[in-house]
Amino acid sequence: MMNATISDTEYTQFQEFIYEQVGITFTGDKKILIASRLGKRLRELGIDTYQEYLDYVRGEAGQEELTNLLDLISTNKTDFFREPGHFDFLRDKILPTLADIQQVRIWSSASSSGEEPYTIAMTLYDGVANPKQWDFRVLASDISTRVLAKAAAGIYEDERVASLDPDIVRRHFLKGKGDRSNFYKVKPTTAEIVRFRRINLMDDAFPIKTPLDVVFCRNVMIYFDRETQSRLVHKFYRYLKPGGYLFIGHSESLQWVDHPFDYVQPTVYRKQ
Length: 272
Ligand SMILES: C[S@@+](CC[C@H](N)C(=O)[O-])C[C@H]1O[C@@H](n2cnc3c(N)ncnc32)[C@H](O)[C@@H]1O
Prior knowledge:
By secondary structure, this protein is α/β, with parallel strands linked by helices. It is built from eleven helices and ten strands. The chain folds into two domains: 66 residues, Orthogonal Bundle (Chemotaxis Receptor Methyltransferase Cher, domain 1), CATH 1.10.155.10; 186 residues, Rossmann fold (3-Layer(aba) Sandwich). The strands form two sheets. The protein has a seven-stranded mixed sheet with strand order 6-2-1-7-8-10-9, with helices on both faces. The chain has a three-stranded antiparallel sheet with strand order 3-5-4. The longest helix has 15 residues. The radius of gyration is 20 Å and the shape is globular. The structure holds S-adenosylmethionine.
């Protein structure tokens, strides 16, 4: 039977490890919560002590286990058309400015299970008169391979889709048949412009060659401290076109963060 208590030293080591690896900070008052969630994971793995688990995630198997560890301390919560103002802005303010080149590059940088990048794809297709003539590409990335696998499959329970406009559902989803009748799958024609890959936002550089029109980084920076946020948004700046946009989550702000962007409106920033 494992020892259910986590020592202060072990807890500090966890805090430091998570911060180094994924930029997430959590404070001392989370100790009991984290210990109980971690305890469950230790039992699943048949590991007896927190120290042993720490050695395990730091070791070779660590990157995969990191996903499980992250799932214990952060959330993957998301939705189709979450914070819809960004998609209106994309359709009404950004797409018209790209009509002459008919090329769009967007990065959904904490894409979770795919609702955000697929919403971007739907907005692109529905936002122009002749989508077949446009060259759309959406990069969707997350640190968690578990959510990325779900995103790439593009299959969602009907309740996830229930609140969407029926026209959007008809245009962009296929309804399952038989024992899959409770599920919807994003149509291949919509999904084909979206590419998925694992990217840790803490990496020094990102595998992006073509300058971007928009970076979505929503509802993840809230876990990072100001210094980490600042480093991250400076990196985003490098990968954007001049005049490109950064969208952040509704409860996030760069007001107290050192950053190079012009402020446009709440949660919308622009490269000069
Ligand atoms: C709450 S979800 C946000 C989903 C979507 N952007 C939205 O706003 O609905 C946060 C996501 O950030 C991911 N994440 C956390 N730390 C990360 C990191 N260092 N690099 C990349 N993704 C990370 C998590 O795995 C999770 O899927």
